[in-house]
Amino acid sequence: PIRLGIISALQQEQNGLVDFMEHPQASTRGMRNYVGGTLWGIDAVCVLSRVGKVAAAATAATLIERFGVTHVLFTGVAGGVGEEVRVGDVVVADDLVQHDMDARPLFPVFEIPLTGQSRLPSDRHLTQTVARAARRFLHEELHEVVTEDDRHLFRLQEPRLHLGLVASGDEFIHSRDRLGDLRTVLPEVLAVEMEGAAVAQVCFEFGLPFAIIRTISDGANEAAPIDFLQFIDRVASRYAVGIVKQVCEM
Ligand code: ADE
């Protein structure tokens, strides 16, 4: 039977999701609150990891070892890196890379030492399901769950879904210079965030299927700190709840 672990870094990225849970049961482990229950008919455990690769890895490992999840879903926001990737778009990862992993000259840049992996693929089947769910949410539901004001504020005209490489590192990218460096070394990256590739590594090591969903909150440029805060406060959780609902109903 399926038990879905659902991680977000911050409260603002998952607000309201546990309100839809039937028979919620909370328990604390390692300074995090895990809430188990039934979400739209699916056995699930929701948790906030906080920010960064270590926080995300500890959370994923606990979900697997302590709460017995069979699948892991991460839902949150990211900075847009790809040329066509705009605020309000959704990026579903098909591959993840830790952009701050560099053990040269002992190992190739980005390779996770002694695993032979530099790009961690997400589960193909779960990722396809999540991508279909996200597309359905964007096309059929987004206009119902964001206000007119927010549509104007964030210029959400026709948000799109992208499938591709997501880069994670313990760094909030907020300058054109850093963004340019990242594009030079990893030209295919669509979005940058701080947890996905850590969850990917833990799930790879435990042999568990996982998928990473990211709504673009900012352009990883000088405006990123302000855009990010506004976006997570106003709309991020609408995306998370809407997409997770579509995933559970598939
Ligand atoms: N998450 C959302 N925006 C981000 C950015 N610009 N850098 C890193 N993580 C992010």
Write a brief structural summary.
With 250 residues, the protein is of the alpha/beta class.
Span between termini: 15 Å
Largest sheet: 5 strands, mixed, barrel
Bound molecules: adenine
Strand order of the largest sheet: 5-9-8-6-10
Keywords: Glycosidase, Hydrolase
GO molecular function: adenosylhomocysteine nucleosidase activity; methylthioadenosine nucleosidase activity
Organism: Noviherbaspirillum galbum
Protein name: 5'-methylthioadenosine/adenosylhomocysteine nucleosidase
Written account of the structure:
- This protein is of the alpha/beta class and 250 residues long.
- The protein has a domain at 76-248: Nucleoside phosphorylase domain (Rossmann fold, 3-Layer(aba) Sandwich), CATH 3.40.50.1580.
- Helix content is 34%, strand content 29%.
- The protein has 8 helices and 10 strands.
- It has helices at residues 53-65, 124-140, 142-145, 148-153, 176-185, 196-206, 224-234, 236-248; strands at residues 4-8, 21-29, 32-39, 42-48, 71-80, 90-98, 120-121, 161-168, 189-193, 210-218.
- Strands 5-9-8-6-10 form a 5-stranded mixed beta barrel, surrounded by 5 helices.
- Strand 3 and strand 4 (42-48) form a beta hairpin.
- Helix 1 (53-65) packs parallel to helix 6 (196-206) and helix 2 (124-140) crosses helix 8.
- The longest helix has 17 residues, at 124-140.
- The relative contact order is 0.23.
- The mean pLDDT is 96.
- The site of adenine has 14 residues, from strand 5, strand 9, strand 10 and helix 7.
